[in-house]
Amino acid sequence: MYPVYEVSRIQIKERSVMRRKSPLSLLFFLFSTLLILNSSININILSSKVYPVQENDLSHPDLNNVLESIRTLSSFGSRVIGYEGFYRAADYIADYWRSLGLEVRFENFTATTPIVKRSSIKIELPDGKTIEGEAYPLWPNHVNPCPYTSPIEGDRLVYAKGGVPEDFQGINAKDAFVLMDFNDRWYWKNALLYGAKGVIFLEPEDTVALQSLQKVFSVPVNFPRLYVTGQTASLLKSLFEKNKEVKIW
User: Fold this and answer.
1) What is the rounded CA–CA span in Å between residue 44 and residue 70?
2) Domain co-membership, 107 together with 132
3) DSSP state of 60
């Protein structure tokens, strides 16, 4: 596994508006902000320049219009400060405000944020071949981004499902990485108690923001936590149908 970070100090452009007579623009500001924070919905974009809601529609919101905005915003990728999706989402909202005839101004702020430049996981298949897939590091533990590179011989990966103590019976988690279901609340911390090197989470069918907030330590412990999606997640689950351990890098 190769998570490589770059800690950058960037200029954040905050979008604000000069309101007209109607207070509805403030309502849309709050609504749009909530949409930016929603990162658990994975839907393909239809258009990056679609503005489905008009100002006079806000008193009777249409679910289809809300979903259209979610599709667009969620298609931008990570909207954490400093990532491309952050700027694209801000521009999307600013452009919408302009389409309503509002004046948009920019205010710059400086923030320090960890930017992941490269992160992946290499998986050994039953025939000895390997396949590489993306793995997304979770938020740093306090100030520790938890970088890690596997040794030449690789690492062991075991599957502990929901992370409760019963799920660790019959597996050796010490000095291994532990594969877990993402919606395990805080039980993933049991992996650290069993001596694991880190945790790899499987993408769930659905989740809530609270699950993400529970996946971080408030102290700078070096305990990598990765998140795998799509074909990579499906491959790992299928390998554990017949194996107790899988080799990874």
Assistant:
1) 10
2) no
3) S
Give Cα 26 distance to the centre of its chain.
28
Single-letter amino acid, residue 50: V
pLDDT tens for 121-172 read 999 999 999 999 999 999 999 899 999 999 999 999 999 999 999 999 999 9
- Number of structural domains, the chain? 2
Q: Which domain holds residue 156?
A: 121-248
Q: What's residue 51's pLDDT?
A: 52
In this predicted structure, the answer to whether residue 24 has a pLDDT above a threshold of 50 is no
Mean pLDDT of 203-212: 94
- Residue after which a domain boundary falls, among 68, 92, 114: 114
Residue 233's Cβ-side half-sphere holds a number of Cα atoms within 13 Å equal to 17
Burial code (b: 16+ CB inside 10 Å, e: under 16) for 227-245 equals bbbeebbeebeebeeeeee
Q: Is the pLDDT of residue 235 over 80?
A: yes
Percent of the chain as helix, strand, coil, to the nearest 5: 30, 25, 45
Which residues are 10's β-sheet partners?
111
End-of-domain residue from the set 58, 90, 114: 114
